[in-house]
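Appendix B. Chain record.
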Amino acid sequence: MRAGIDCYMSRGTAEALGVSGHRLNIIKAKQQFRIGTWAILPFETQHDAQEPLGFLLANQDGEKLLYATDTYFIRYCFQGLTHIMIEANYCMDILKRNVEAGLVPKELKTRLLKSHFSLENVKQFLRANDLSRVREIWLLHLSDGNSDSERFKREVMGLTGKPTYIA
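Structure tokens predicted for this chain:
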């Protein structure tokens, strides 16, 4: 906002960050808004933050992008997606091994389980959604120590048959 860029966020996020001003645009879950040629539909996500949101973006060319990070569960299913950008923060077996080795405190494990998407949950989410038009999947927000990017990419590609990338 100090750089002159409009920012869009929920009221809870704005309050948690302590931001205000003419560049702040408060948005609400399930209330669509537009930026340029994109229609954006925010939706609730589950995270240990104030009023977190994911986003479904659609343009006039029929492209639909789902963006969701910092969540451990998405309660919605989506039709006609062409692109998916989704968090895949950790994998249960890697996390368990790291906790047992003392590399990850048990408190952090509890927080991860209640705030971030595991590989297992991502795969369950992908199975529940219409992937017939999906052209690519991007896995986001991988944990430095509790993930394996090559394994995550391989498993998601094996499940979906879609090109998968790590960001």
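Further analysis of this model is presented in Appendix C.
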